[in-house]
């Protein structure tokens, strides 16, 4: 039999809060439901406390976490794209790579590390912007990418 604390937790679950919201305000969109399921501050998949959701010990691994070749391939692609922009527009003083849903920053780290090592002129012109909804994951990315903050040629976080 459940005690009073367990019953209270059940009534305050994300499902219960969504049910109350729907009863009060009417139907919600799939977007709003997914936003709550993934990013609710307390119970969202990416925001709840506990072990990391990504990586070798998490629920899944992304391509950048599996092999450094993924980011290296994109760094090569970005260097070619930058060269095309230089050819077409003249030498652009800077450009920005934007990554949505960057997780813990593995891909960004691989890109910036490869650009710095293999394409220094592209690295010097690159700013990297990350949009990551989970505050805990954003903090992990900020730590992972801290070495790239020099001269504002690193990462901006949203």
Number of domains: 2
Q: What is the CATH third-level topology name of the largest domain?
A: Rossmann fold
Provide the succession of SSEs. HHHHHEHHEHE
User: Can you name the CATH architecture of the largest domain?
Assistant: 3-Layer(aba) Sandwich
The major pleated sheet works out as:
3 strands, parallel
Radius of gyration: 21 Å
Instruction: Give the CATH class of the largest domain.
Output: Alpha Beta
Tell me the name of the CATH homologous superfamily of the largest domain: Vaccinia Virus protein VP39
Question: How much beta, percentage-wise?
Answer: 5-15%
What is the averaged pLDDT score?
A: 82
Distance between the first and last residues' Cα? 45 Å
Low-confidence stretches: 4-9
Strand order of the largest sheet: 1-2-3
Q: Helix coverage percent of residues?
A: 40-55%
SS-based class: mainly alpha
Describe, in plain words, how this protein is organized in 3D.
About 4% of the residues have low confidence. Helix 5 packs across helix 6. This protein folds into 2 domains: 36 residues, no CATH class; 95 residues, Rossmann fold (3-Layer(aba) Sandwich), CATH 3.40.50. The chain is elongated, with a radius of gyration of 21 Å. The relative contact order is 0.11. The chain has 8 helices and 3 strands, in the order H-H-H-H-H-E-H-H-E-H-E. It is 54% helix and 9% strand. A 3-stranded parallel sheet has the order 1-2-3. It is mainly α and 158 residues long.
């Amino acid at each position: 039999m459940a005690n009073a604390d367990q019953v209270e937790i059940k009534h305050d679950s994300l499902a219960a809060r969504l049910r109350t919201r729907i009863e009060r305000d009417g139907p919600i969109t799939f977007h709003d439901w997914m936003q709550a399921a993934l990013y609710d501050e307390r119970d969202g998949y990416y925001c709840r406390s506990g072990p990391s959701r990504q990586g070798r010990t998490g629920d899944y691994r992304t391509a950048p976490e599996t092999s450094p070749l993924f980011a290296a391939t994109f760094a090569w692609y970005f260097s070619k794209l930058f060269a095309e922009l230089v050819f077409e527009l003249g030498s652009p003083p800077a450009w920005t790579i934007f990554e949505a849903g960057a997780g813990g920053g593995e891909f960004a780290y691989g890109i910036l590390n490869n650009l710095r090592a293999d394409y220094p002129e592209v690295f010097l012109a690159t700013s990297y912007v990350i949009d990551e909804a989970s505050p805990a994951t954003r903090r992990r990315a900020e730590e992972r990418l801290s070495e790239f903050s020099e001269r504002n040629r690193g990462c901006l976080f949203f």
